[in-house]
Amino acid sequence: MTTLYKTATLDIDTHQRARYAKSSEGVSVVMQERKDIEEIKEILGFNNTEPIALSPGDREDAEEKGDAFAEWYEEELREFYERGE
Asked: What's this model's pTM, rounded to 2 decimal places?
């Protein structure tokens, strides 16, 4: 759903994208709800992809340090989906 707000300031969370357009009354903000990464994976058919198996040492290392590529992967996946590729 798209909603038009006529305001100069607006809080935007990570699930929304904003486009700004000049109008005679000032700045208009068009908000569009963004799809969740899990929804994007399902639409693209990536939800059935099995992750690679990690050795016990690698699994322990990943649990301690976290997934360094998770944010990057999600950002690239979202851009890929939004470009319509």
From this structure: 0.51
